[in-house]
Specification:
By secondary structure, the protein is α/β, with parallel strands linked by helices. The protein is 39% helix and 16% strand.
C-alpha cells in the first residue's frame, strides 16, 4: 500500500520555497479534471477566472460573474481530497470595497469549498489582502500581467520591460508579501525580473510565462 496522502495546506506551499523544491500548479474547471489532478498529487489547483473563456465562451476574463465562478469552484472542490484549491476572484468581486472583498471571498470558502482565493494587483489592493488574512482567508497574489486589466494594459503584453515598470512590479511583490499573502503569481514578466523577485521574497512565486526561476509553475 502507498503512503497516505496528506491534505495540502498553505504551509506546505510555503515550505516548498524553504526546501527549494519546485512545484506544479494546474487549473481545473470541473469535477472530473479536479479528480485527475488530485490523484496525480498536484499540490495546488487553481480555479481560474479563465473559466470565462474556457467554460462560458467569453473573449476575456472580464464578463464572468461570482455566481458563474462559484458553480465551477464547487464542482472542482467536490473532486478534490488532498490538493489545495484556490478560487480566482472575478472582476468587480473585490475592487469596489474591502467589504465586498471579504463577502465574496468568504462565499468561495463557505459555499464553494475552496481553501484560498486569488486577487490580481499589488500595492493598490494591499489593504484588501490584509483584511482577508485577518478574517482567516488565505490569499494568493497575482502581479505582472493582470488579465482583468486587459483594457488598461492595451491587451496581453509582457510587463516590466522598462526599469520603471520593473520597479513597480518589485514593489507590488513586496506589498503582497507584506500584506500576508502565502504566495504570488508572476505572469508574463521577463525571466531576469522574475528571478530577482523570487530571490527577494520569502513567499513562493508561481510563474505563468515568466521563465524558469520561479518557485512553482502554472
Amino acid at each position: 500500500m502507498g503512503a497516505k496522502l496528506i491534505k495540502v495546506t498553505i504551509n506546505h506551499i510555503k515550505n516548498f520555497k524553504k526546501s527549494n523544491k519546485p512545484f506544479a500548479t494546474l487549473t481545473a474547471y470541473d469535477y472530473t479534471s479536479a479528480q485527475i489532478l488530485d490523484s496525480a498529487e498536484i499540490p495546488l489547483i487553481l480555479v481560474g477566472d479563465s473559466a470565462s473563456m474556457m467554460i462560458y465562451g467569453f473573449d476575456t476574463t472580464l464578463p464572468v460573474s461570482m455566481e458563474e465562478m462559484l458553480l465551477v469552484v464547487r464542482a472542482v472542490c467536490r473532486g478534490v481530497q488532498n490538493s489545495l484549491v484556490v478560487a480566482d476572484m472575478p472582476f468587480l468581486s473585490y475592487q469596489p470595497s474591502i467589504e465586498e472583498t471579504i463577502k465574496n471571498a468568504g462565499l468561495f470558502l463557505k459555499k464553494g469549498g475552496a481553501s484560498a482565493v486569488k486577487l490580481e494587483g499589488g500595492q493598490h489592493i494591499k489593504e484588501h489582502i490584509v483584511a482577508l488574512v485577518n478574517c482567516g482567508i488565505p490569499v494568493l497574489g497575482h502581479i505582472g500581467l493582470t488579465p482583468q486589466s486587459y483594457h488598461q494594459l492595451s491587451g496581453y503584453k509582457v510587463q516590466g520591460k522598462t526599469p520603471r515598470d520593473a520597479q513597480k512590479i518589485i514593489d507590488d511583490a513586496l506589498a503582497v508579501q507584506e500584506a500576508g499573502a502565502f504566495g504570488v503569481v508572476l505572469e508574463c514578466v521577463p525571466s531576469p525580473l522574475a528571478k530577482e523577485i523570487t530571490q527577494a521574497l520569502t513567499i513562493p512565486t508561481i510563474g505563468i510565462g515568466s521563465g524558469s526561476f520561479c518557485d512553482g509553475q502554472i
